[in-house]
Write a structure and sequence with these properties.
The protein has about 425 residues and is of the alpha/beta class. The chain contains 17 helices and 16 strands.
């Protein structure tokens, strides 16, 4: 099976390469080709994707090219993840909308329309190339935003082999499984709508309808992405809402938050990407892979710090460079403190847990107490202003013998402790 990725020079290319490599044997993927029209980015981020795939699945052939025909030729599946106009045009879209007091958001806001007007013509060219050069049964999965508008437009234009992809619905189902402490496949749902604008009117646990009780469960509004919505709205709608509908139902609030922050999401990402790409351009990705990985990690940290808005109740738990997804899911479900109040201060927490520390922990003798360490970064706000940033050690203790947390039950046996600090007057 051949998979082509159009837009393979993006900063997140190596994460896509990781997923493809990990699933390659199960899905029968033997060839992947990343294509991008920006040779500088392809030479950096594309090569990093190659290194990731090589380490995870040496037999998987991952190639790079700037030629769309070479990428698409005989492809069974094509993934499109492009940004026409790059970050500068995204910022222009955001600012034009915000200057008029309108939501400048690229998926469900006004900025999305201008983005779609640039994206659709470019994607049409790739669809035509696919009809001419790809496998006769080719399917195209579109990640390009605004995913809903773009996917519907391509279908309306007759490209019925295209499909829009959004991971928000499946992520919601996974969060419900964590609530009930059951395997992910135990929770299913009926979803309607399109990509970022979707709804669930049925949620089942082991085949039994649970939607009515789920809507009344307080954990829904604290432990899942439904925390963005007020309970009275959800009860009125009588269904589960995609997190991006926040921008529709609370559009005035969303606009004010962005204006208060003084910087748009696009501006944060542009500045981080420029700095990161410049640093990486002087490194030997193929022969000294660890240093570029450290740069990626550092710049992602910086982006998280800059992107947090005042008074935003958010906990971002992210993984180290090769952190196993199953472990990451379990930690996400357990370590979910939300916004704790310490006196007059509001605290947002970002937690990084190193896989190397977990591996070192489990390399001890089986009768030892298993320990691993991470780092918590707290952002303190007062009256909407960031007043302090502090770091603290995170300690995981467990007496389990297994080499990883493969199930929620295994993780429940671990004791999670961390020390919080106090601000001096």
């Amino acid at each position: 099976m051949k998979i082509a990725v159009i837009g393979g020079g993006g900063v997140r290319s190596m994460f896509l390469a990781k997923s493809l490599a990990q699933s390659s044997l199960e899905l029968g993927i033997n060839q992947v080709i990343f294509m991008d029209n920006d040779p500088k980015k392809l030479n950096i981020y594309g090569k990093m994707a190659q290194q990731v795939a090589k380490r995870l699945q040496p037999d998987l052939q991952l190639e790079l090219t700037g030629d769309p025909v070479e990428a698409i030729k005989d492809a069974d599946y094509i993934i499109t993840t492009i940004r026409v106009g790059e970050d500068d045009m995204r910022i222009q879209d955001e600012r034009v909308a915000l200057n008029l007091g309108v939501l400048g958001q690229e998926t469900t806001g006004a900025a999305g329309f201008s983005f779609a007007m640039r994206s659709v013509p470019a994607l049409v060219k790739y669809c035509e190339l696919a009809k001419k050069y790809a496998s006769p049964d080719v399917k195209i999965f579109n990640f390009t935003n605004p995913a809903g508008v773009v996917s519907q437009t391509l279908r309306d234009m007759g490209y019925d082999f295209t499909y829009g992809i959004c991971d928000a619905p499946s992520s919601l189902l996974h969060s419900f499984a964590k609530m009930y402490k059951v395997p992910q496949n135990s929770v299913t749902g009926d979803c309607y709508g399109l990509n970022h604008l979707s709804f669930f009117d049925s949620i089942k646990l082991d085949g039994k309808e649970i939607l009515p009780e789920l809507l009344k469960d307080e954990r829904l509004y604290t432990d899942t992405d439904m925390r963005f919505f007020k309970k009275d709205l959800v009860e009125h709608m009588g269904c589960i809402l995609n997190e991006y509908l926040y921008y529709f139902y609370y559009r005035e609030e969303a606009v004010q938050h962005i204006l208060d922050a003084g910087i748009t999401r696009g501006e944060v990402i542009r500045d981080v990407n420029i700095h990161m790409t410049e640093e990486l351009s002087h490194m030997d990705v193929e022969n000294d892979f660890e240093k570029p990985l450290d740069i990626i990690q550092k710049n992602n940290d910086d982006m998280l710090i800059e992107a947090l808005s005042p008074k935003e109740s958010s906990v971002l738990i992210y993984s180290d460079k090769d952190f196993d997804d199953s472990i990451y899911d379990q930690i996400t479900s357990i370590e979910n403190d939300k916004c704790k109040l310490y006196g007059d201060y509001e605290e947002d927490i970002v937690i990084d847990i190193s896989k190397q520390n977990i591996d070192a922990s489990f390399s001890k003798k089986t009768d030892d107490l298993k320990k691993c360490y991470g780092e918590a970064v707290a952002f303190f706000y007062k009256d909407g202003d960031l007043v302090d940033v502090k770091k603290e050690e995170l300690l995981f203790e467990s007496s389990t013998i297994s080499t990883s947390f493969k199930t929620e039950e295994e993780f429940d046996q671990a004791k999670v402790t961390h020390r919080f600090w106090t601000l001096e007057n």
